[in-house]
Amino acid sequence: MDYQVTGDVLPNDHPRRLQSLGHAVLAMNALLSSLTDHSSNESSYWIPERVFLFGFSAGACLAMESCRLWKLRRNVPLGGAICIGGGIKSESLPGCVAPNYNDGDDQYGFTDVLIITGSKDNVYSQKDALNSKTPCYDGSKVQIHVQQGKGHGMIGSREEMQTVMEFLSKRLVRRMSSMEDMSEK
Q: Distance (Å, rounded) from C-alpha 123 to C-alpha 1?
């Protein structure tokens, strides 16, 4: 997708797509940095582990690429990212530092990511989802859910929503014990 000018869908390796996505990822990184910068005012910053990203299609690609750059720039994971029908589609982006996976400094690791795609999704296929795990992103941090019979679309089933809720339940910093018995089983 051209994130800057037209909004048109572009091939994965199109230079304008990569440049536009790189620009959007850098803007998202600046936003996340400003939200989580505790040096300016101790009472108004967000703890990175409490920041979650959610995106559909091109927004999912932006969310996962932002998590990759966040790790490369900050070395501290966000709370998580939920990517519906999208994710990383390139090894690196213009203007974004290329990862070095052999540096041994993965003590903080990548942000956990949930990718939900459909078995009939022709925009972001199961193969694309699997390719998001390696070599671009630590595969152990990526959970993939393939919804049978689904094309390219937002969450549309109880099973998909249940997957999202389970993902979040394992990553939210604080739980409200008074509400634990209120959900349907």
A: 12
State the average pLDDT for the chain.
81
Q: What is the pTM of this model?
A: 0.81
Are residues 141 and 113 in contact, defined by beta-carbon separation less than 8 angstroms? yes
Q: What is the 3-state secondary structure (H, E, C) of the chain?
A: CCCCCCCCCCCCCCHHHHHHHHHHHHHHHHHHHHHHCCCCCCCCCCCHHHCEEEEECHHHHHHHHHHHHHHHHHCCCCCEEEEECCCCCCCCCCCCCCCCCCCCCCCCCCCCEEEEEECCCCCCCHHHHHHHHCCCCCHHHEEEEEECCCCCCCCCCHHHHHHHHHHHHCCCCCCCHHHHHHCCC
Alpha-carbon gap, residue 185 to 178, rounded angstroms: 16
Cis peptide bond upstream of 135, omega within 30: yes
Question: How much is the average pLDDT of 44-62?
Answer: 90
